[in-house]
Amino acid sequence: MTQPENWQTGGFGLYVHWPFCEAKCPYCDFNSHVVASVDQRPWAEALAAEIRRYAEAVPGRVLTSIFFGGGTPSLMAPETVATVIGAARGSWTFANDIEITLEANPRSVEAARFEGYARAGVNRVSLGVQSLREDDLRKLGRLHDVKEAQAAFGIAREVFDRVSFDLIYARQGQNLRDWEEELGEALEMAVDHLSLYQLTVEPGTAFWDRAQKGRLKGLPTEDLGADMYELTQELCAGAGMPAYEVSNHAPAGSESRHNLVYWRYGDWIGVGPGAHGRFSVHNTRYETIAHRMPGVWLPAAQAGNGDLSRDVVPMEDQAIEYLIMGLRLSEGVDLERLHNMSRSVAPDAVIEELTRMGLLRISSHQLKATLEGRMVLNSVIEKLVP
Ligand SMILES: C[S@@+](CC[C@H](N)C(=O)[O-])C[C@H]1O[C@@H](n2cnc3c(N)ncnc32)[C@H](O)[C@@H]1O
Ligand code: SF4
């Protein structure tokens, strides 16, 4: 039986990157830039023009999700968001249950814009709460305090159908007990979705420089990090918010549809500085990367194309990407779909060996990482990829 194309299996999403922030957090390596002010009209028009350009290349699709990521998309004026959503609506058919998410920093100025975003069509927000401890928010360089974040969360719950928030754990000076208490408070607060990330010290960040100079003290050891991860799985599952992905928790049906498009290796269009996209036309899959610097992207988009590159993704690379994405999910990857892309990725003998080691398991033709496997996912993938 022929399998459906990737976009039919995984859905079709639109990612919109807003690259500006009010301050640069010392741990963050996202494509975010601090500027005094932004004239948003040309940005709204350029993002809309990019969407229309893509609609000509990838016409006639049903859009499952839109995701405004950043940077800080909650610095966008509601009119800017409305212009972008309007361009998408004019370009593709919206699924009846389309999910439109905006990443927001949990401050009162941003919460004041929530109603405007909802009127523009946003129906889900993801709040960057990061920590429920004042000292740690300061260490993470955040501009909000705990009360302000909780207030923004309360407003978001009233305004939007769906609300998620992010926390970063395995922070400086944090022990297992501290995290247990904080996560307990987070689970009391959470409604339908929670993203819990272990702090990673990324090259090019202020934390990285501090770590190089030996001044980033008190980071948990690898063992403590692993214990924190296990505890996180346990507490979240117990509270009815099991992990559906390595760092993402939700009851069944409340998963982020947009993230599922990536992890199920569907098609998505990426617009805005540094945005990546993957989409298939006549069974050829393309990867697009937009110019990263805002000052380069804007004039390029205004001149008719904001992309730095568009390349064909060879079948074997598609298999590798699908494997890397899909093993993050608790539902795993469809082995038949994977092996139709390439027989040399995830050969049976290696799957058997990793299964014997308790790192993988197969159920209903889906290849899944076990909890132990998810904790060492990079080395599992290294073994599966030729
Ligand atoms: C694009 S960022 C944040 C969006 C928004 N500007 C904010 O700060 O809330 C998405 C999420 O990635 C997580 N994150 C970013 N850098 C991280 C790092 N170095 N380690 C762990 N999590 C990180 C944070 O939880 C953050 O909310
Ligand atoms: S974490 Fe968010 S607010 Fe901080 S620099 Fe990164 S994108 Fe901007």
From TrEMBL:
<dbReference type="Pfam" id="PF04055">
    <property type="entry name" value="Radical_SAM"/>
</dbReference>
<comment type="similarity">
    <text>Belongs to the anaerobic coproporphyrinogen-III oxidase family. HemW subfamily.</text>
</comment>
<dbReference type="InterPro" id="IPR006638">
    <property type="entry name" value="Elp3/MiaA/NifB-like_rSAM"/>
</dbReference>
<dbReference type="InterPro" id="IPR013785">
    <property type="entry name" value="Aldolase_TIM"/>
</dbReference>
<dbReference type="GO" id="GO:0005737">
    <property type="term" value="C:cytoplasm"/>
</dbReference>
<dbReference type="InterPro" id="IPR058240">
    <property type="entry name" value="rSAM_sf"/>
</dbReference>
<protein>
    <recommendedName>
        <fullName>Heme chaperone HemW</fullName>
    </recommendedName>
</protein>
<keyword id="KW-0349">Heme</keyword>
<keyword id="KW-0004">4Fe-4S</keyword>
<dbReference type="InterPro" id="IPR004559">
    <property type="entry name" value="HemW-like"/>
</dbReference>
<keyword id="KW-0143">Chaperone</keyword>
<keyword id="KW-0963">Cytoplasm</keyword>
<comment type="function">
    <text>Probably acts as a heme chaperone, transferring heme to an unknown acceptor. Binds one molecule of heme per monomer, possibly covalently. Binds 1 [4Fe-4S] cluster. The cluster is coordinated with 3 cysteines and an exchangeable S-adenosyl-L-methionine.</text>
</comment>
<dbReference type="Pfam" id="PF06969">
    <property type="entry name" value="HemN_C"/>
</dbReference>
<dbReference type="InterPro" id="IPR034505">
    <property type="entry name" value="Coproporphyrinogen-III_oxidase"/>
</dbReference>
<keyword id="KW-0408">Iron</keyword>
<dbReference type="GO" id="GO:0004109">
    <property type="term" value="F:coproporphyrinogen oxidase activity"/>
</dbReference>
<dbReference type="GO" id="GO:0051539">
    <property type="term" value="F:4 iron, 4 sulfur cluster binding"/>
</dbReference>
<feature type="domain" description="Radical SAM core">
    <location>
        <begin position="6"/>
        <end position="242"/>
    </location>
</feature>
<keyword id="KW-0411">Iron-sulfur</keyword>
<dbReference type="InterPro" id="IPR007197">
    <property type="entry name" value="rSAM"/>
</dbReference>
<keyword id="KW-0479">Metal-binding</keyword>
<dbReference type="GO" id="GO:0046872">
    <property type="term" value="F:metal ion binding"/>
</dbReference>
<keyword id="KW-0949">S-adenosyl-L-methionine</keyword>
<dbReference type="InterPro" id="IPR010723">
    <property type="entry name" value="HemN_C"/>
</dbReference>
<dbReference type="GO" id="GO:0006779">
    <property type="term" value="P:porphyrin-containing compound biosynthetic process"/>
</dbReference>
